[in-house]
Amino acid sequence: MSTTAVPALDKTFQILDLITAASQPLTAAQIAKQLALPRSSTHNILQSLLSKHVIYKDADSRFHLGSYLLYWAGKYEQQQGIIQLFKDLITQYPVLLQHTVTLSKLDVGEVVFLACHEAPAPLGFTFRAGVRVPAVFSATGKAMLSTLSMDNIESIYESGFPEPLTANGVDNFDRLQDELNMVHRSRISLDDGQLRDGMYCLGTYIRNASGNAIAGMAVSFLQAEYECRREEVSAALIQLAEQIEQHLGFIST
To answer: Does this chain's domain 7-66 share its CATH topology with 75-248?
Structure first.
């Protein structure tokens, strides 16, 4: 029985799970027989997986897991590694622990939250792992976008600039460029009520050993406390980002 709206995807995972669990590599006929799948669709799926190097076929036409899985595993390990660094190192920054601090990554034109340190006082906005928001309105999104060229950013949003979520949201590329220029000067980005009215966020990016921004962090405030805390919080946020970068192998030049 199909468990998703895409039966071919179910079959693909069944095949991969069988190849992974089998004590010996299997031929296409054996895979089709064990899974009770039509030989034609089994063959088509195997060919697609072969073309992407997700599996490979040996001289006896038996199938093994392929090298492309290492790319997925590496990305997953990298993501989990940065989450653990965030959780371990933030404890060294008492000024940050007083606030809600989020870790996120850029996924095309959106920000995906990976982890969150919750402030004692609620903000009225849910920062759960997996929640997505438009990158152009979030502090972490703008921090990471600032490391890209405007041509690249415009290509991400080629279908149109996102509709603002509040009256404070940027609504065109020129206004976004002005905000990104500020990030270039200070390494700090600002969401001044663009995700939620009354909530302000300061953000920065985190680079890996290759110098690419692979994540962002942001500290969230109620609007009333933003002005008096922004300088010390910005300094601590940058220090934490740089400390995480050092653990990831980034060397500043």
So the answer is: no
Which H/E stretch holds residue 87? helix 68-89
Whose CA is closest to 120, among 97, 103, 139, 102?
Answer: 97
Structure tokens at 83: 């989450």
What is the sign, positive or negative, of the torsion defined by CA atoms of 68, 72, 73, 78? positive
* Of 51, 58, 69, 65, the residue nearest 15 (C-alpha): 65
Is residue 114 within 8 Å of 105, Cβ to Cβ?
yes
Dump the DSSP string for 152-211: HHHHHTTT-PPPPSSTTS--SHHHHHHHHHHHHHHS-EEEESSSSTTEEEEEEEEE-TTS
pLDDT at 125: 60
Residue 121 pLDDT > 70, yes or no?
Answer: no
Domain 7-66 has CATH 1.10.10.10: yes
The stretch 2-9 carries a mean pLDDT of 66
- Is 75-248 a domain of CATH 3.30.450.40? yes
pLDDT greater at residue 211 or residue 129: 211
Give the separation between CA 46 and CA 122, rounded to whole angstroms: 50
Supply φ then ψ for residue 112, to 5 degrees: -115, 125
Cα→Cα distances 190→169, 206, 228, Å: 11, 16, 15
Tell me the C-alpha distance between 179 and 90, whole Å.
26
Q: Name the pTM for this structure.
A: 0.69
Q: Where are the domains of the chain?
A: 7-66, 75-248
> For tokens 């438009």, what's the residue?
134
